[in-house]
Amino acid sequence: MQINPYGSDKASLAVGLVNADPGIDPPGMNELLLSYNTTKPVVDAEETAELLAWAAKLRVVFETTDLDERIAVLNRLLGEAAIRPTIARHEGEMTPHLHYSLDTDSTVKRVKARTATGLAHVICASGGGRLGCCAREDCTVVFIDTSRNGRRRFCSTQCANRIYVADHRARSRGGRGG
Q1: For residue 106, is it within any domain?
Q2: How far is it, in rounded angstroms, from Cα 81 to Cα 96?
Q3: What CATH number has the domain bearing residue 11?
């Protein structure tokens, strides 16, 4: 699946935030945000806690499988993010593009706007079926399914292999009479 390149980094930030260690400290959060191209990511302990609470709300978008419910949850988050679209052009860039928060907004407000709109782009581009949670029972990782057929069930090959090997072993034991 081809994701709008302008929305993909924002949706990827949502995935990174949801998958972040719940005990992450402010320097770790700043590093995480920087790794997803967040401009001037500077958060303190209170803002880190606010972003982790936001990540818990974003997780619901991934965990919900009903499209209408997923859209309702995301619409509430878009409203909570208080998105204010503007058209921007940066120095040296000729092509105008949309920003969903002001450059002067706090890091937390910008991250909320970016992640909510990024997931909205994915839902609108894919019909809503490309957001997922790993199917391995003890794994909590979320992902965006960019596979061609849209049938991804696991966050990684490692998680998939663990399930497939366990299933194979269970079938093998069952075939030998125990």
Answers
A1: yes
A2: 23
A3: 1.10.3300.10
Quick one: which of 8, 123, 12, 25 has its CA closest to 71?
Answer: 123
Kindly state the DSSP code that residue 156 receives in the 8-state scheme.
S
Count Cβ atoms below 10 Å from residue 20 Cβ, excluding itself. Answer: 17
* Alpha-carbon distance values, 77 to 41, 60, 65 (Å): 21, 10, 17
**Rounded to 10 degrees, what is the CA torsion of 59, 62, 63, 64?**
120
Q: Into how many domains does the chain fold? A: 1
Q: What is the pLDDT, as a whole number, of residue 6?
A: 44
Of 88, 83, 87, 17, which is closest to residue 54 (Cα–Cα)? Answer: 17
Q: Report the 10 Å Cβ neighbour count for 14.
A: 28
pTM of the model: 0.83
CA terminus-to-terminus distance, the chain: 44
Residue-range definition of the domain harbouring residue 102: 5-129
Per the domain annotation, does 28 fall within a domain?
A: yes
Residue 170, domain member (yes or no): no
Tell me the per-residue pLDDT of 83-132, one tens digit each, with 9 for 90 and over: 888 888 877 777 888 888 888 899 999 999 999 999 999 999 888 788 99
139 sits in which H/E element: none
Two structure tokens written together for 24:
């992450």
CA separation, residue 71 to residues 8, 143, 148 (Å): 18, 17, 23
